[in-house]
Design brief:
With 222 residues, this protein is of the alpha/beta class. The protein has a single domain, classed as 3-Layer(aba) Sandwich (Rossmann fold), CATH 3.40.50. 42% of the residues lie in helices and 17% in strands. It has a seven-stranded parallel β-sheet, with helices on both faces. Helix 1 packs parallel to helix 4 and helix 2 packs across helix 8. The N and C termini lie far apart (45 Å).
């Protein structure tokens, strides 16, 4: 019975995600779903992205957290529309929550969804995004991809964040990348530091390329 209920929930989520995807296609919006464990630096990374893309790409942000709007408040200080979804104990965002949020924020060329800090629950929930981007940090160890394979298998890109800490840790970012690619060889890999700014430009340029490609595909299809 439990399996049947979970199956129905996922099926309903897929239907809503499809509706979201159509909506984002019509508005030429490229959407990413940022997923990670708590403390990986998601919000700091979003702030860095906003600063780099200022004046280049219009963007909006949806933030998921169990409670409080601390992260959304941080993002709004960068003069970007940000909506907080409090899941009230829920360990992930779902498509219905995103669909409701889209009516409360302005349309943009780039939509960043900052999911709840969790590498289990969000793995199977499609939010209508173009790309799921998983973030890990060296402090989490080299075997994170091996412990949470579904998340890495379902992602299109990985960001290894906080690389400025590597000199102080007994960890290899090359080993993290190797383990991630053993799960998903197609992963696009970025290595970043929100403290030094290293790697931020490369990731933002990847975002810009995808934003332009989506708009171009739409133009060709119209």
């Amino acid at each position: 019975m439990k399996i049947d209920i979970e199956k129905r929930i996922l099926e309903k989520n897929i239907m809503v995600a499809h509706t979201i995807r159509e909506r984002l296609e019509s508005s030429h919006t490229f959407a990413i779903n940022l997923v990670s464990s708590p403390g990986s630096g998601k919000t700091s990374l979003v702030e860095r992205i906003i600063d780099y893309l200022h004046g280049k790409v219009t963007l909006s942000v949806i933030v998921g957290d169990v409670q409080t709007d601390i992260d959304a408040s941080r993002i709004r200080r960068h003069d970007v529309p940000a909506l907080q979804i409090e899941t009230e104990g829920g360990c992930h965002l779902n498509a219905a929550q995103i669909e409701g949020a889209l009516g409360k924020i302005p349309s943009s060329r780039l939509l960043i969804i900052e999911n709840v800090g969790n590498l289990v629950c969000p793995a199977n929930y499609d939010l209508g995004e173009d790309a799921k981007v998983v973030i890990v940090s060296p402090t989490e160890g080299e075997d994170k991809p091996l412990k949470y394979p579904i998340m890495f298998a379902n992602s299109q890109a990985i960001i290894i964040n906080k690389i400025d800490l590597v000199p102080y840790l007994d960890v290899s970012i090359d080993e993290i990348e190797k383990n991630a690619r053993s799960i998903n060889p197609a992963l696009v890999v970025f290595k970043t530091s929100c403290k030094t700014g290293e790697g931020i430009e490369e990731f933002c340029e990847w975002l810009c390329e995808n934003v332009k490609a989506k708009a171009l595909n739409k133009a060709h299809g119209s």
